[in-house]
Specification:
By secondary structure, this protein is an all-beta fold. The chain is built from no helices and seven strands. The strands form two sheets. Strands 1-4-5-7-6 form a five-stranded mixed barrel. The chain is globular.
Length: about 130
């Protein structure tokens, strides 16, 4: 089985690999367990709620909380767990999970016309990713 956590960070000079854990439209949160090499059910959302976009991680990275960097992938269609795409990092935000800080990447899918040229007021986030 593929170890998704150890895929290279960079797909090419401007795109990172993004591994989807929880796809758009899902009513449950999934997490990749690198020890078991499977996607585990983490929690269910409240009735009527779904994830509006794909959530996942950037492989071969390490956030301050010890997990790979989280990534929100904005594009037109839902995918499925374990799918990977080249995504163009466009912004990052810091958040706190309990007492530990975490960074969240926001990207546009490089293959989706509506997000290919997405811009953000926060600037780019390449400085928080490993060097190519």
């Amino acid at each position: 089985m593929t170890d998704y956590a150890k895929l290279p960070t960079w797909a090419d000079a401007t795109h990172v690999h993004a591994v989807v854990e929880t796809p758009r439209g899902s009513r449950v949160k999934l997490n990749f367990d690198p020890k078991l090499q499977v996607f585990m059910l983490r929690k269910s959302l409240m009735v009527g709620l779904t994830y509006p976009y794909d959530w996942g991680f950037i492989p071969s990275t390490c956030a301050e909380d010890g997990d790979p960097l989280d990534i929100l992938i904005i594009h037109e269609a839902p995918t499925y767990p374990a799918s990977s795409s080249g995504a163009s990092p466009s912004a990052y935000s810091s958040s706190c999970k309990g007492k530990t800080a975490s960074r969240n990447e926001t990207t546009g899918c490089s293959r989706c016309p509506s997000t290919r040229r997405s811009k953000t007021a926060y600037g780019t986030s390449a400085e928080c990713l490993p060097q190519r």
